[in-house]
Write a structure and sequence with these properties.
The chain is of the alpha/beta class. The chain folds into two domains: 237 residues, 3-Layer(aba) Sandwich (Aspartate Aminotransferase, domain 2); 87 residues, Aspartate Aminotransferase, domain 1 (Alpha-Beta Complex). The chain is 41% helix and 15% strand. The chain is built from 14 helices and ten strands. Strand 8 and strand 9 form a beta hairpin. Helix 1 runs antiparallel to helix 11, helix 2 packs parallel to helix 11 and helix 8 crosses helix 12. It binds pyridoxal-5'-phosphate (PLP). The site of pyridoxal-5'-phosphate has 11 residues, from helix 3.
């Protein structure tokens, strides 16, 4: 049956699987010295319309933590939203990888940091008793299923850069946000002041492929050593690179994301039309958050849907549409709810 618990319950899309099969024939140099990996720098640079430097990784937690570890000193402050994945879902990996940097959670509406709140939170620069403002991390699309508008990103980056902070974007669902805003990847990142991006592929059609993307070569610094030291300089790198290359070719990533967003919008409307169900955040990408009465949760779970009604601040149930969600599965879910 179809599950809506996350977009990582899916398999990989056919284009990615075909690329893996092709990459599997013959031998190739290890640790990224293969043709798939070297072509990838060019591919990402084309997509982002500027020369970027990228490093593949196999989990979003590793991408985020590694990116933060090169952007923050061990005594740094990393500003984030209190609902952010780095604050709630990574078991202290950002603190561990940075060697003890301090996360500073903020509480803007709908899971998004506001420029005002951020600006008012920056404190302690130059005071030896305090951790030092170093990075702000925003998630796009964010943990509540909403997206930052370009002006919101720029406003945050301007404040950060004016005070010497770096700007990181957690893009576990980057493609869904690009598709939702209908802007270019460049506009949503470096043109809006993003310094380093955790680019996600796994949730939107890859098997296990992420990348840390640097928009400023001077920020790479010691990153190759941090990357290796963390165990993410993968010896058979060609397989991660082949996934990313196929994912970024022929608009596969955007097609997958557009489909997921369209299905989420359909499901969101269907759920919101049920009298007892309320959206707790607007649906702007592929995640839907609703307040769901307990009898409906129980009914759905009796039917095998594995609904967790304890998401975010513990008050929401989440439904996620993916690259391969089918309309008939949405109909089936809505009919199951209607029968309660
Ligand atoms: C899924 C996700 C990640 C990455 O998670 P991993 O399980 O480590 O791959 C990072 N950020 C956000 C917002 C996510 O939803």
């Amino acid at each position: 049956m179809a599950l809506f618990t996350s977009d990582n319950v899916t398999g990989a899309c056919p284009e990615v699987m075909d690329a893996l099969i092709k990459a599997n024939s013959g031998v190739a140099s290890s640790y990224g010295n293969d043709k798939w990996s070297s072509n990838l720098q060019k591919k990402f640079s084309e997509i982002f319309e500027t020369n970027v430097i990228i490093f593949p990784a196999t989990s979003g937690t590793a991408s985020n933590s590694l990116a933060l570890s090169v952007l923050s000193p061990v005594f740094g402050k990393i500003y984030c939203h209190e609902l952010s994945h780095i604050n709630t879902d990574e078991c202290g990996a950002p603190e561990f990888f940075t060697g003890g940097a301090k996360l500073i959670p903020m509480r803007g509406p709908d899971g998004k940091i506001t420029a005002k709140e951020f600006s008012e939170s920056i404190r302690g620069t130059g005071n030896v008793h305090l951790t030092q403002p170093a990075v702000i991390s925003i998630t796009q699309s964010c943990e509540t299923g909403t997206v930052y508008q370009l002006e919101e990103i720029s406003a945050i980056s301007e404040i950060a850069h004016a005070q010497g902070l770096k700007v990181h974007m957690d893009g576990a669902r980057f493609a869904n946000a690009v598709a939702s805003l209908n802007v270019s990847p460049a506009e949503m990142t470096w043109k809006s002041g993003i310094d380093v991006l955790s680019f996600g592929g796994t949730k939107n059609g890859c098997l296990a492929a992420e990348a840390i993307v640097f928009f400023k070569p001077e920020l790479v610094g010691n990153f190759p050593y941090l990357h290796k030291r963390s165990g993410h300089l993968i010896s058979k790198m060609r397989f991660v690179s082949a996934q990313l290359k196929a994912y970024l070719s022929n608009d596969v990533w955007l097609r997958n994301a557009r489909h997921a967003n369209t299905m989420a919008s359909l499901l969101s409307k269907g759920l919101a039309a049920v009298p007892d169900i309320k959206l707790v955040h607007p649906t702007q990408a592929n995640e839907i958050f609703v307040s769901l009465p307990n009898p409906i949760v129980k009914h759905l779970n009796d039917k095998g849907y594995e609904v967790n009604h304890d998401e975010l601040d513990g008050k929401a149930a989440r439904f996620v549409a993916a690259w391969n969600t089918e309309e008939k599965d949405i109909d089936k879910l809505l009919k199951t709810i209607a029968k309660k």
